[in-house]
Amino acid sequence: MMKEILFATNNQHKLREVREILGADYRLLSLNDVQLDVEIPETQDTLEGNAAQKAWFIYDRIGINCFADDTGLEIEALEGRPGVYSARYAGEGCSFDDNVQKILTEMTGLNNRRACFRTVVCLIVDGKEYLFEGRVDGVITTEREGAGGFGYDPVFRPDGQHQTFAAMPPYLKNGISHRGRAITKMVNWLKQK
User: Catalytic residue among 37, 60, 69, 70, which?
Assistant: First the structure.
Protein backbone atom coordinates (compact mmCIF):
# COMPACT_ATOMS: atom_id res chain seq x y z
CA MET A 1 0.00 0.00 0.00
CA MET A 2 1.26 3.47 -0.91
CA LYS A 3 1.81 5.39 2.34
CA GLU A 4 2.97 8.67 0.85
CA ILE A 5 1.11 10.58 -1.82
CA LEU A 6 1.32 14.02 -3.37
CA PHE A 7 -1.74 16.27 -3.59
CA ALA A 8 -1.34 18.50 -6.65
CA THR A 9 -2.87 21.67 -5.27
CA ASN A 10 -1.87 25.12 -4.05
CA ASN A 11 -5.10 25.42 -2.02
CA GLN A 12 -4.19 25.29 1.67
CA HIS A 13 -7.84 24.77 2.69
CA LYS A 14 -8.03 21.63 0.56
CA LEU A 15 -4.70 20.35 1.91
CA ARG A 16 -5.87 20.71 5.50
CA GLU A 17 -9.22 19.08 4.75
CA VAL A 18 -7.68 16.10 2.91
CA ARG A 19 -5.09 15.61 5.67
CA GLU A 20 -7.97 15.34 8.14
CA ILE A 21 -9.77 12.84 5.89
CA LEU A 22 -6.67 10.66 5.35
CA GLY A 23 -5.69 10.62 9.01
CA ALA A 24 -2.55 8.75 10.04
CA ASP A 25 -2.63 6.13 7.27
CA TYR A 26 -0.96 8.39 4.70
CA ARG A 27 1.60 11.14 4.62
CA LEU A 28 0.09 13.74 2.34
CA LEU A 29 2.76 15.68 0.49
CA SER A 30 2.13 19.20 -0.70
CA LEU A 31 3.81 20.95 -3.61
CA ASN A 32 5.95 22.78 -1.01
CA ASP A 33 7.21 19.42 0.26
CA VAL A 34 8.62 18.64 -3.19
CA GLN A 35 9.88 22.21 -3.78
CA LEU A 36 7.52 22.84 -6.66
CA ASP A 37 6.24 26.39 -6.92
CA VAL A 38 4.09 26.51 -10.04
CA GLU A 39 0.71 27.79 -11.10
CA ILE A 40 -1.31 24.72 -12.04
CA PRO A 41 -3.50 25.14 -15.16
CA GLU A 42 -7.23 24.65 -14.89
CA THR A 43 -8.63 25.35 -18.34
CA GLN A 44 -10.93 22.41 -19.08
CA ASP A 45 -14.72 22.66 -19.24
CA THR A 46 -15.50 19.68 -16.98
CA LEU A 47 -14.54 18.71 -13.44
CA GLU A 48 -13.03 15.49 -14.80
CA GLY A 49 -10.97 17.43 -17.34
CA ASN A 50 -9.64 19.91 -14.79
CA ALA A 51 -8.74 17.22 -12.25
CA ALA A 52 -6.87 15.23 -14.90
CA GLN A 53 -5.15 18.32 -16.32
CA LYS A 54 -3.86 19.31 -12.88
CA ALA A 55 -2.69 15.81 -11.92
CA TRP A 56 -0.88 15.19 -15.23
CA PHE A 57 0.70 18.65 -15.09
CA ILE A 58 2.43 17.76 -11.82
CA TYR A 59 3.13 14.11 -12.67
CA ASP A 60 4.77 15.05 -15.97
CA ARG A 61 7.12 17.47 -14.16
CA ILE A 62 8.31 15.33 -11.26
CA GLY A 63 7.16 11.76 -11.95
CA ILE A 64 5.71 11.23 -8.47
CA ASN A 65 2.41 9.43 -8.01
CA CYS A 66 -0.10 12.17 -7.26
CA PHE A 67 -3.70 13.23 -7.35
CA ALA A 68 -5.64 16.40 -8.01
CA ASP A 69 -9.25 17.31 -7.60
CA ASP A 70 -11.80 19.69 -8.98
CA THR A 71 -15.05 20.57 -7.29
CA GLY A 72 -18.17 22.25 -8.53
CA LEU A 73 -21.36 23.49 -6.95
CA GLU A 74 -24.27 22.75 -9.28
CA ILE A 75 -27.50 24.63 -8.58
CA GLU A 76 -30.72 23.45 -10.25
CA ALA A 77 -32.37 26.89 -10.51
CA LEU A 78 -29.21 28.30 -12.11
CA GLU A 79 -29.10 25.53 -14.75
CA GLY A 80 -26.12 23.86 -13.07
CA ARG A 81 -24.08 27.02 -12.49
CA PRO A 82 -21.53 27.76 -11.23
CA GLY A 83 -20.36 24.17 -11.88
CA VAL A 84 -16.82 23.92 -13.23
CA TYR A 85 -16.45 27.69 -12.76
CA SER A 86 -17.23 27.58 -9.01
CA ALA A 87 -13.81 28.84 -7.86
CA ARG A 88 -13.94 31.92 -10.07
CA TYR A 89 -17.67 32.45 -10.48
CA ALA A 90 -17.58 36.13 -9.49
CA GLY A 91 -14.63 36.75 -11.85
CA GLU A 92 -10.87 36.23 -11.96
CA GLY A 93 -9.19 37.09 -8.66
CA CYS A 94 -12.48 36.94 -6.74
CA SER A 95 -12.69 35.84 -3.11
CA PHE A 96 -14.79 33.04 -1.61
CA ASP A 97 -17.03 35.76 -0.19
CA ASP A 98 -17.49 37.32 -3.65
CA ASN A 99 -18.63 33.96 -5.05
CA VAL A 100 -21.05 33.36 -2.18
CA GLN A 101 -22.53 36.83 -2.56
CA LYS A 102 -23.05 36.33 -6.29
CA ILE A 103 -24.92 33.07 -5.64
CA LEU A 104 -27.12 34.63 -2.94
CA THR A 105 -27.91 37.58 -5.20
CA GLU A 106 -28.78 35.38 -8.20
CA MET A 107 -31.02 33.19 -6.03
CA THR A 108 -32.98 36.00 -4.41
CA GLY A 109 -36.67 35.11 -4.56
CA LEU A 110 -36.12 31.64 -6.04
CA ASN A 111 -38.06 28.80 -4.39
CA ASN A 112 -36.06 25.93 -5.90
CA ARG A 113 -32.87 25.93 -3.84
CA ARG A 114 -31.75 22.37 -4.72
CA ALA A 115 -28.03 21.95 -5.37
CA CYS A 116 -25.24 19.41 -5.26
CA PHE A 117 -21.53 19.53 -4.68
CA ARG A 118 -19.44 17.23 -6.88
CA THR A 119 -15.76 16.47 -6.52
CA VAL A 120 -13.75 14.51 -9.06
CA VAL A 121 -10.34 13.20 -8.02
CA CYS A 122 -7.81 12.16 -10.65
CA LEU A 123 -5.13 9.84 -9.29
CA ILE A 124 -2.04 9.04 -11.34
CA VAL A 125 -0.12 5.94 -10.30
CA ASP A 126 2.81 4.73 -12.36
CA GLY A 127 1.62 6.71 -15.38
CA LYS A 128 -1.98 5.45 -15.30
CA GLU A 129 -5.03 7.62 -14.58
CA TYR A 130 -7.89 6.71 -12.24
CA LEU A 131 -10.97 8.86 -11.54
CA PHE A 132 -13.11 8.90 -8.38
CA GLU A 133 -16.24 10.98 -7.84
CA GLY A 134 -17.99 12.13 -4.68
CA ARG A 135 -21.35 13.86 -4.57
CA VAL A 136 -23.57 15.32 -1.88
CA ASP A 137 -27.02 16.78 -2.46
CA GLY A 138 -28.58 19.60 -0.48
CA VAL A 139 -29.95 23.12 -0.62
CA ILE A 140 -28.62 26.65 -0.83
CA THR A 141 -29.60 28.63 2.27
CA THR A 142 -30.92 32.17 2.05
CA GLU A 143 -28.07 33.54 4.18
CA ARG A 144 -24.62 32.57 5.42
CA GLU A 145 -24.36 30.24 8.40
CA GLY A 146 -21.16 29.21 10.19
CA ALA A 147 -17.55 30.29 10.17
CA GLY A 148 -15.77 27.05 9.27
CA GLY A 149 -14.95 25.45 5.95
CA PHE A 150 -14.32 27.49 2.82
CA GLY A 151 -15.83 28.33 -0.52
CA TYR A 152 -19.60 27.88 -0.62
CA ASP A 153 -19.73 26.00 2.71
CA PRO A 154 -21.60 28.85 4.53
CA VAL A 155 -24.60 28.56 2.17
CA PHE A 156 -24.75 24.80 1.45
CA ARG A 157 -26.80 22.58 3.77
CA PRO A 158 -26.59 18.86 2.92
CA ASP A 159 -29.75 16.76 2.89
CA GLY A 160 -30.52 15.27 6.28
CA GLN A 161 -28.52 17.90 8.17
CA HIS A 162 -29.60 20.96 10.13
CA GLN A 163 -26.40 22.93 9.54
CA THR A 164 -24.41 24.19 6.60
CA PHE A 165 -20.98 22.70 5.98
CA ALA A 166 -19.47 25.88 7.48
CA ALA A 167 -21.35 25.36 10.76
CA MET A 168 -20.30 21.71 11.14
CA PRO A 169 -17.23 20.48 12.98
CA PRO A 170 -14.61 19.24 10.47
CA TYR A 171 -15.02 15.56 11.39
CA LEU A 172 -18.74 15.71 10.57
CA LYS A 173 -18.30 17.63 7.32
CA ASN A 174 -15.45 15.39 6.15
CA GLY A 175 -17.50 12.29 6.90
CA ILE A 176 -20.31 13.29 4.53
CA SER A 177 -18.79 15.77 2.08
CA HIS A 178 -18.30 15.37 -1.66
CA ARG A 179 -14.51 15.63 -1.25
CA GLY A 180 -14.56 13.17 1.64
CA ARG A 181 -16.50 10.67 -0.43
CA ALA A 182 -14.19 10.99 -3.44
CA ILE A 183 -11.03 10.74 -1.31
CA THR A 184 -12.45 7.71 0.55
CA LYS A 185 -13.08 5.96 -2.79
CA MET A 186 -9.50 6.72 -3.82
CA VAL A 187 -8.08 5.43 -0.51
CA ASN A 188 -10.16 2.24 -0.71
CA TRP A 189 -8.79 1.66 -4.21
CA LEU A 190 -5.21 2.27 -3.00
CA LYS A 191 -5.66 -0.24 -0.18
CA GLN A 192 -6.36 -2.92 -2.76
CA LYS A 193 -3.11 -2.20 -4.65
Answer: 70
